[in-house]
Amino acid sequence: MEQALTARTEWKRSWPTVLAAMIGMSFYSVITFSLSTFMGPLEREFGWSRTALSSGLTIFAGISMLGGPFVGALLDRLGTRKIAIAGLALCGCIFAAFGTLTGALWQWITLYVAYGLCALLFKSTVWSAGISSVFTQGRSLALAVMLSGSAIGQTLAPMIAHALIDAFGWRMAYVAMGLGWAGVSLLLVVPLYFDAKARIARGPAGDGVPAAKIVLPGLTIREASRDSRVIRIGVAALLASVVGSGVTVHLVRIVSETGIPMNRAVEIAALAGVAGLVGKLAVGWLLDKVQGSVLPFSGFAIGAFGHFLLIGLFEGIAPKIVGVMCVGFAGGAGLQIATYLASRYAGMRNFGAILGTISSAMMAGTALGPLFAGMVHDATGSYDMLESIAAPVMLLAAFLFVGLGPYPVFRNPEDQVA
Predict the structure, then answer these.
(1) Rounded Cα gap, residues 194 and 102, in angstroms
(2) Which of 108, 184, 219, 237 is least surrounded by CB atoms within 10 angstroms?
(3) Is 4 left (phi over 0), alpha (psi -120 to 50) or beta?
(4) CB neighbour list of residue 128: distance below 8 Å, 6 or more residues apart
(5) What is the pLDDT of residues 338-394, one digit of tens each?
(6) Fold type of domain 221-399
(7) Of 283, 301, 282, 291, residue with least CA distance to 398
(8) DSSP calls for 348-394
(9) How far apart are CA 309 and CA 182, in angstroms?
(10) Where do transmembrane segments lie in this chain (predicted)?
């Protein structure tokens, strides 16, 4: 393939792949962010409790956590294109099948198990591996744009679900969102989404070569497991996910329990989402231009400062607004930083398995964080202790990026056949 492509050239060649991946990523977040809209109709229809309804996402998260490394290894062998297409098609059908529920809770659980297994095929690890394989100079911004698909899903899914439920009922809403959103994603992914392995296999030098035979540059699994830089990136991501998820899930209450009215607290908490998108795109753009530990350290340190402002030492609404936005900014930048640095320090040879392992650790942190936050609040009667713990933990995560050193240069076997 071409050597030393500029970021502009990479974008000119591969922007359709980024667009398709972004829309595919948006559908991955629909199952999570549409649930609250479907809860009311399902409660009225079947009398299910909030705990029962929430159990689906617990199953979904558990499968994502346990299956991440295995799917990552599959990506390294087969590439991401066919896997992503299969995942979108299967999950679109399963999402639509939620409209056939008859009131038996086992159906709800079974559908979530099936959805969780198939969603492994188009989670963020899949799209990240594909985008990273076709971008080098412009990789971070490309990842940021792709990952912003989750923000698109987070923003649009509740509104679309609400409109469809009002117009056609919850059953048809499930069908329309499943087949419609996945269908639009497939219309873009099938003709536009090609990762490095797919491109090599299609090109003159790799015509007819199976994806499993194509080798990309980077560390082996054994080398990555012993590389202190990769380990530090993973630990930092885990710590950030624990405190980030714990605070984010309880964010409205953290703000409201300082005496701010609930409706105003909701508005302030919503700023975290906006700041997260800004953090994702800003850090994504800058990481392509600035090497070293400055940006990763700064991104996580901003989160630590935000947690400090939310401890309760400062009166007034302004510190709460700034604190929430700092926490949101760090949350948006966190996955972006971990994904980009993993691709740089581990390379692309086993990037799927390596990022899958890091993502699974982050998913574990996401599952434990809200539980830990609730336990701290129950034990102390406020969230001050939680934020007092979160601030230094986030700062520790920031310091783990210090001294990572220059990006290694891996031998480039893009056209090598094993």
Answers:
(1) 40
(2) 184
(3) left
(4) 143, 146, 147, 339, 343, 355
(5) 988 988 898 888 888 888 889 888 888 877 887 788 888 888 988 899 999 999 999
(6) Growth Hormone; Chain: A; (1.20.1250)
(7) 301
(8) STTHHHHHHHHHHHHHHHHHHHHHHHHHHHHHHSSSHHHHHHHHHHH
(9) 41
(10) 18-39, 51-71, 83-106, 112-129, 141-165, 171-194, 230-256, 268-287, 294-314, 320-342, 354-377, 389-410
User: From CA 350, how far away is CA 125, in angstroms rounded?
Assistant: 12
Contact 23, 185 (CB under 8 A): yes
Report the DSSP beta bridge partners of residue 214: 417
Q: State the residue for tokens 């799917």.
A: 71
End-to-end CA distance of the chain: 17
CB distance 349 to 270 below 8 Å: no
Instruction: State the Cα–Cα distance between residues 335 and 329, nearest whole angstrom.
Output: 11
Phi-psi label, residue 180: left if phi above 0, alpha if psi -120 to 50, beta otherwise: alpha
Q: How far apart are CA 200 and CA 415, in angstroms?
A: 7
Two tokens, residue 93: 């059908």
Q: What is the pLDDT of residues 30-72, one digit of tens each?
A: 988 888 788 889 999 999 887 788 788 878 888 988 888 888 8
Instruction: Could you please state the CATH topology (level 3) that the domain comprising 7-213 is classified under.
Output: Growth Hormone; Chain: A; (1.20.1250)
The region, left, alpha or beta by phi > 0 then psi within -120 to 50, assigned to residue 103 is left
Query: Please, which pLDDT band fits residue 26 given cuts at 50, 70 and 90?
Result: very high
Q: b/e string for 166-195 if b means 16 or more Cβ within 10 A?
A: eeeebbebbbbbbebbbebbbebbeebbbb
Quote the CA–CA distance of 401 and 229 in Å, as a whole number: 8
Q: How many residues does the chain have?
A: 418
16 φ/ψ angles, rounded to the nearest 5 degrees:
-65, -35
* pLDDT reading at 141 higher than 50: yes
**DSSP character string of 286-326:** HHTT--SSHHHHHHHHHHHHHHHHTSS-S-SSHHHHHHHHH
Q: What angle do CA 346, 61, 164 make, to 5 degrees?
A: 120
C-alpha–C-alpha distance, residues 128 and 146, integer Å: 8
Percent of the chain exceeding pLDDT 70 equals: 94
Map tokens 């296999």 to a residue.
201
Taking the domains of the chain in order of start, what are their residue ranges? 7-213, 221-399
Half-sphere exposure of residue 22, counting CA atoms within 13 Å on the CB side? 16
Give me the residue label for tokens 């400090």.
308
Amino acid at 306: G
